[in-house]
Write the structure tokens for this entry.
Amino acid sequence: MSATTRWFRRGDHLVMLGASAGAFVLLALSTLTGWPVGAGGAGSPATTAVNPVMAAQAGDCLNWTKQDLSDVEKVDCAAQHLFEVTGVADISAAHGPQAPFPDDEQWQQISQEQCAKTSLDYLGGKFDPYGKYTVGPLNPGERLWAEGRRTLRCGLQVAGPAGGLLPSYGTARAQDQSDVYDPGVCLGITATGSVADPIDCAKPHTFEITGVVPMPPGEFPVPDQQDELMFTECAKLTTEYTGGADLKARGLIVTWDTRVPQSWAAGSRLANCKVGATPVDGVLIAWEGSVRNPDAPPLTTSNPPQTTAVQQDEPTGAPLHSQSNSSSAAPPSSGSKPPKSDETTTTATTTTTSR
């Protein structure tokens, strides 16, 4: 490795939702998920089962595998889940019996009014506006809405850079909210050249995650201090991850993320090391294949982060990377710094649930 730099933190999918607690930035889903009708989990008669969403309260976690949520079930938050309930909201006062089913823009407004502060309170007032969690409601869906149902479940989810839902492990109230991924995860590329959701590394992608670095406790480290730390740690972790592969020969460079003051204030202390193709005129370049040492021991997943490309039967709580982070390889001696990735454009992302 002869070049190392800091590059894009995440996709450009942040939207500002004003909340009474001050500047409160949320990654919002502009098309929100509706409740299933009669879902009661595997083996439960749809006509008699209690819908787990209807019974869910703050602190409950829900999981499903089907896009229409017909197999939704309440699970222990330590297990894989897609939604953590932060509160229940009744919007019947503003949306009477004859009110039409809200469109995407109206659901955004409802989410802002009903779920932003509720979720902030649920997290003890600490929310990372650039972190991995997104806030939004599970709405009743058009059928139950037509029958008069006006109760929402506000909650937290993890969304990828392009908006795809990703599995969570552990309650958000006890998690570091840093927007990080496990080593071995590759992030795809969109048609417009932005960072996309996790994808098989054999397919075109922007970055391959090589490690996670915990920031030291204390006061917020200025960008130069973070760069110095990440420069050294990412060199070690990437050398370990690749087995000392010659990245330059493949047109690849070592990159890393940093944290901003708003994230630091929320307790986010983790940052990713990653490998990407050398940008051309500031534009991300897709590449294929993995740089991981094929003779390296199996990767282990951890909690956090909550997104992983590594298969597991249940969360292990193991470290994000092996403990042998020491390396005799010297860190790269030179490199350039393109524009800081923390300065992302604010736009909304959409997730559609079929019925």
Q: What stands out?
A: The chain has five helices and 13 strands. The chain has a mean pLDDT of 75. The CA atoms of residues 87 and 118 lie 6 Å apart.
